[in-house]
């Protein structure tokens, strides 16, 4: 198995740690990870797209190498404000979001449409009143005291066991995960275990998702977005119901929908070349001023 590319170098941009591809292409792209993820979730996709965009993958507040947010704000709006701060530095950009990150970039796009050239949403965590087993566990983890207890108990399990369980949940075929990427994930989890705020970052962000599920305001945000939008869902997603793709396709004003038959929750990690081909089409269409063709 060919050795994968190394993770991109990082820097601090205000309150966020950001990993970036070398500057070159004038078009900018900002990538936002999901719950308990990090900027490295985008390594391979950023590599596929580095010839047409300069990529900036954020560690959301309290995640990856970003410090905990002042005031402990892990809400979707709080995360969106942090991303907007980066966008004010990069200028208008193509936004990518997976899972929680999808919800964050939807909120950011609704708040600052002037900073958004296009959206690529991969299994976005938009409100669903019939969540699957995985989200149901997220709901449970947000219960006061129970969430903290669960985090403590899980933290006692070996990092290898926790990473294997996570990958089995987000990949349709965990066998596609390169051993080097697995080693990186284990090393990162061990590092995170040593941070005093890592558990609260996960619980706080999960609570932020749950709060939005009850408000339903993210769907209202989505209906206001006019930027060209690419929606990518995996038919074997264990966390976001693929049927939600239909509602998303009806809600966003200018959307193209792609359903991947043999993919799970994180298509940018599982099938980066496929996602890159779809995103490349959107970026080139946006350059030409053409709306994406519905499919």
Automatic annotation (TrEMBL):
It comes from the Bacteria. This is Pimeloyl-ACP methyl ester carboxylesterase. One of its GO terms (molecular function) is catalytic activity. Residues 30-270 form the AB hydrolase-1 domain. GO terms for cellular component: membrane. Coiled coil: none annotated. It comes from Nonomuraea soli.
């Amino acid at each position: 198995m060919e050795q994968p590319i190394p993770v991109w170098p990082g820097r601090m941009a205000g309150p966020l740690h950001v990993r970036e591809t070398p500057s070159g292409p004038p078009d900018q792209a900002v990538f936002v990870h999901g719950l308990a993820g990090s900027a490295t979730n985008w390594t391979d996709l950023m590599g596929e797209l580095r010839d047409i965009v300069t990529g900036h993958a954020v560690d959301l507040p309290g995640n990856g190498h970003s410090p905990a947010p002042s005031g402990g704000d892990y809400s979707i709006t709080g995360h969106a404000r942090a991303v907007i701060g980066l966008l004010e530095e990069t200028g208008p950009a193509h936004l990518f979001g997976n899972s929680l990150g999808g919800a964050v970039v939807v909120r950011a796009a609704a708040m600052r449409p002037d900073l958004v050239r296009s959206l690529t949403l991969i299994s976005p965590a938009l409100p669903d009143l019939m969540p699957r087993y995985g989200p149901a566990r997220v709901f449970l983890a947000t219960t006061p005291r129970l969430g903290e207890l669960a985090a403590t108990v899980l933290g006692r399990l070996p990092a290898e066991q926790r990473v294997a369980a996570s990958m089995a949940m987000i990949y349709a075929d965990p066998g596609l995960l390169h051993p080097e990427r697995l080693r990186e994930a284990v090393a990162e989890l061990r590092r995170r275990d040593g941070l005093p705020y890592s558990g609260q970052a996960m619980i706080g962000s999960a609570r932020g998702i749950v709060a939005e599920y009850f408000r339903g305001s993210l769907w209202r945000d989505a209906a206001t977005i006019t930027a060209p939008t690419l929606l990518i869902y995996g038919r074997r997603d264990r966390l976001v119901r693929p049927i939600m793709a239909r509602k998303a396709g009806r809600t966003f004003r200018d959307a193209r929908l792609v359903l991947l038959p043999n993919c799970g929750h994180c298509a940018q990690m599982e099938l980066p070349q496929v996602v890159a081909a779809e995103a490349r089409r959107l970026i080139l269409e946006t350059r030409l001023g053409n709306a994406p063709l519905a499919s």
